[in-house]
Amino acid sequence: MELGIIHTLSSQYIPDTIRGYLQQYPQTEFKIQTDKTENIIKGLKEHKYDIGFCGKIIAPELVFIPVLYQEFVAVVPPDHELANKQEISLEELVNYDLVGYLDDLVIAQTVKEIFAEHKLEPRYISKQENELLIGGMINQGFGVGIAANTSFLKEFDLKVISLKLKKDYRVIYLVYNKVDYISVAAENFINYIAINKINL
């Protein structure tokens, strides 16, 4: 089974999901490639992948099933003046130089919309592809991060702070092409995730 997944899911969600699935269907073989949402959607349209795990870009031939919700957080070094806070507002956050996501990522558009809803203009000093790179920049003293709270952030000694938001999560979807023939293995995998409501 060919999977296209965003980098965020490579360290925990997909390995844990596949491990559980293989206990029921041990003969299944997986081939996994990591990429950004836009390329995964393109791969699904071009029949490169059986299933994708990524953000949402509307396409009539694709089915999107929400499977994972990730909170947006602020990320700071442990000695930062914000580090003793449990929660901060976006109004507080925009007073600092920020490290966030590359503009062409779906998640970057979500963050942009959140700031726009609050009529705020963030000041970015660096934009990165994923939480591992954002965490690395913050770990080296580059500003304050805004990111989805993923296992990548645990790679560093950083303080993760909740944000006061109405919409405070990123949604990741299981995606497949409804026009394509869906193999028995792919159908079983989709059903397994739906039944078990995996949300790590």
Automatic annotation (TrEMBL):
Record InterPro entries: LysR_subst-bd
Keyword Transport: no
Gene3D superfamilies (UniProt xref): 3.40.190.290
Keywords: Transcription, Transcription regulation
Domain LysR substrate-binding: from-to ranges: 3-193
Any one Gene Ontology molecular-function term assigned to this protein's record: transcription cis-regulatory region binding
Family, per entry: Belongs to the LysR transcriptional regulatory family.
Name under which the protein is recorded: LysR substrate-binding domain-containing protein
Annotated source species: Thomasclavelia ramosa
